[in-house]
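Recall the central idea of this unit: under ordinary conditions, the amino acid sequence of a chain determines the structure it adopts. In this exercise we apply that idea directly, starting from the sequence alone.
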Amino acid sequence: MKRIFIALAILLTVQMADAQVKSPADAKKAVEAAQAATENPKKAAKPATWLKLAGSYMDAYSAPMGNGWIGANKQELTFLMGNDKPSSTQTVTLAGEPYTKEAYSTMNYYFNANQQLAIIEVTKPVYEDALDQALKAYKEAEKVDAKGSKTKDIDAGIKNVAAKYMELGMNDYMFGDYKGASENFEKSVNAGAEAPNPVIDTMTIYNAGFTAWMAQDLAKAETFFLRCAELGYAEDGEVYAKLGDIYSKLDNKEKSKSILEEGFSKYPANQSIIIGLINYYIESGEQPDELFALLDVAKKNEPNNASLYYVEGDIHNKLGHKEEAKAAYLKSNEINPEYEFGLIGLGIMYYNEALELQEKASTEFDNAKYEAIIVEFEAALKNAIDPFEKAFNISKDNEIKVSIAEYLKNIYYRFRDQDPKYMEGYQKYSSIVENGL
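Accordingly, the structure predicted from this sequence is:
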């Protein structure tokens, strides 16, 4: 699955294992009693009355969730919940990962592969707008708190509401409801900004923009990403990449180019920005001189940054400049002999060249031409061996080494009958792919 950039915030509040959770019926009665108190003019003038109403709505929000809390172990929950058994259990896939879903009368619990409760989905809320009403009540408490005696409680309460909106946004994201996720992230941002001691939650602002982008609400996504850029929160350049994509989809190619170039000057190694710029130059027919000029500036500022030469190689490779790509990939390794990515890039370039030749051979019916293509195909595969081998030996990351081993296993398999050394290579890397390091 393509890497998805969404900042996963740590939840600000969690329901503790020993917390006393009201039943939905009791929670509703408490809200009704607290609401009645606010209709009394004398009581309505006291911040404590509104704090009581806000707290009651928060209890009503949590009541249908049962005794579970995010991070709880399934075994300990089974003990705590006693006779409250799930009506059904099934395996589901969310965001590409397997979860065990347990359905109860008012909620669904989703356990991850480690048997920890990861998601609580309320199916029968006491009030659909409990968080909205709690926020209103906290704001009323602030209005009548002339002496500021309850500022600390109000501030904590509003920030707790913001955290709950954020949790709902994460749930919506996991369930693939990107529009709902963006709306809840936006509510979280707005609630935090309304607290007596307001916070600017850049991570959640990014989440709101990202999920709006996923939902193809481009105008809304643009608003949030621009706000991120203004606040200096770029998610390693992804904000600029997403803005470039938005302007491209809105058919504002020049604005797309401009924002991507701005992002490239700040984050030259961001692949999304690079791909966006390359696509622009390919579609526009312009020469990518400005792209290389920006890269040259970055290299002058950081002459010993091997990753910049890797990026240069990658750009040349994508543009079909094979010799220039090879030179840049090798230069990155020359600058930093422990930097494996230039060698990996070179190996992949040769490997992909071999795949293209293999595809070409499959459509060639002239036997002589077919044989000539196969010679080129095998030469390209063998050219990939040396950079892949060197990268494998250099890398200190076992996950990267296994990925390289996958390429080498496939290459050596092709030549395993030509020479014992190829069979040895196949057996070595096949074992690594299968068993890891």
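DSSP finds 19 helices and four strands in the chain.
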